[in-house]
User: Fold these one by one.
Assistant:
Number 1:
Amino acid sequence: MYTSTPQDKPWTVPMLADAKRDGRKLVMLTAYDASFARTFDSAGTDLILVGDSLGMVVQGHDSTLPVTVADTVYHVACVARGLSKALLVADLPFQSDATPERALDAATALLQAGAAMVKLEGAGHKLDVIRFLVEREIPVCAHLGLTPQSVLRLGGYKVQGRDDATAGKLRADARAVAEAGAALLVLECVPTGLAQTITAELPIPTIGIGAGPHCDGQVLVQHDLLGVNSGHRRPKFVKDFLAEAGTIAGAVTAYASAVREGRFPDAAHSYD
Ligand code: KIV
C-alpha cells in the first residue's frame, strides 16, 4: 500500500527522482489562475501544470494548436503567485519547440514567469530539443502516447500503442527521452500494461493520464476533476471528484488520496 501523506516542504526537480525511488506516487493537476492554484497547492497537490489544454478549457478552442507562448506565460505568472509548495510545470505551445533555439527562447520566458520545468510533446527531432534545453539548465518533462499537438496527423484524440509495432515504438521513445535528459514523462491515453512496462523500464517518473494505475503519478485537467463542462467529449479516464466530495478542496484531497493509495485510476478509468 502506498502512503497518502502529502509532502510538507516545497518540491524541487531532484525530489521527483527521489519520489520514484521511494515509491511515493506523484499527484498533479492543471491550473490556469492563482486562486485555483492556491487551492490545489494547499490541498496537497505535488505538481501543477499550466497545460496548453488552456486553449480548450479556458479559451474555448477545439484543439491546443492556437495557444501561444504569450498566453502560456500569462497563465504561468498567474499560477505561480498562488503556489507555495507545488512544482510548476509549463507546456511549450505548438511549434514553440520546433527548433532548439525557439524552444530555448520560449522555455526561458516560461521559467522567468515562474515555471520550474517545461513540458514538450514527442520524441524524434524533439530529442535534440530536450538535450539542448537540459544542457542549458532547463528541466524538461516529456509527453508521449496521445500528444494533442499531433491531432491533425492522428485524426483525433485516440488511444496510442495498441498494437505491437506502435507499443514497441512508444517504449523506444520513452527510453530515448529519458536518455536525452527529461526528468519526468507524461503518458497520455496508453493501455495499462504498456504504461506499466514503460514505468518499470525508466529511471524517471511517469505521470499517467488515461494510462492506468501503474504510473509513478497521475495528472487530471482541473475542469475534468471538478466536472466543469468545457464543451468537449469527456474521455473514459476522467472522473468528477467534486460530485462526491462536495467542495473543491475536498475534491482535490479525495483525488490526491486516491492517487497516493493506488485507487485512482481503476479499471473503469483505464484502457486495456
Ligand atoms: O495540456 C495539458 O493539460 C496536458 C495534460 C493533459 C497532461 O498536457
Number 2:
Amino acid sequence: MASFSHLFGASSHRIAEADSVAVIGLGRFGSSLALELVDAGTEVLGIDSDEDIVQSMNGRLTQVVRADSTRREALEQLAVPEFDRVVIAIGDDVQASILTASLLIQMRIPVVWAKAVSEQHGLILEQLGVHHVIYPEKDMGRRVAHLVRGAALDYLEIDRGYALVKTSVPERFRGVTLGQAGIRRGHGVTVAAYRRGSAEWSNADTDTVLHDGDTVLVVGPTRRVEEFAQLR
Ligand code: ATP
C-alpha cells in the first residue's frame, strides 16, 4: 500500500486510497476508533474542529486536520468525497452530525457510519441514508448488563436474541468429547472454539475434550448462552 502522504499532490486535493478511512470528530469515541484503525494498518484522515484535539492527535493518525465538517468546501478541500468509508463520530452536537451526514450522502460516499446519541438522532441519520448507525453508549450498556448478570467473561450480541459468550467450562462437560457431552442437544448452544490456558484459540469439533481451566466461546440464543455461562 502506498503511503498516505502521496495523497497530497501538487494540488490542494488529495485522492483517498481504497484502504483508507476518514473519521470526523475525534472525541473519546472517534479518537479510539481512529487509533484502532491505524493499529490495524488502515490509513486514517482525522478531522476535528477543535484545535487542541487536532494538536493532541497529531502524529498519531496518518493525517489530522482541523476543519468544520458542516462546510461542504472544507470536506471537498480535504478530498473527503474520494473516500470509500467515512465515520461521523460527532455526538453531542446533533445538528453538526446531521449536516455532515447530509453532505456525505449528497457526495455519494459508498459507506457512511455515524454515531447516534439517541433514538431520534439515529432515526434521522437513517432517513438521510447513513448506511450504519451505531449507538456506542446504549450498546455498551446492554453488553455490560449481560456481563454483570452472569458468569460470562465476555459477551457479544450478534443480532437481537443471538449472542456469543466467552466463559469457563462447567465441570460436568470436562473430560469428555463435545460429541459425548451433548451440549447442543441439551442446552441449545454450540461450542465454537476453546483456549487452553494462554494458548491460541482452536476451533472446537465433536472430538474436542475440554478440561478444567479451558475457556470456551459459545454461540446460540441469548437466553441459552447466558444459562450455559451460569452452569457450574
Ligand atoms: P465522545 O463521547 O466521543 O467523547 P463527545 O460527546 O465528547 O464525544 P461530541 O460532541 O460527540 O463530543 O464531538 C466529538 C468531536 O467532534 C469533538 O472533538 C468535537 O470537537 C468534534 N466536532 C463537533 N462538531 C464538529 C464539526 N462540525 N466538524 C468537525 N468536528 C466537530
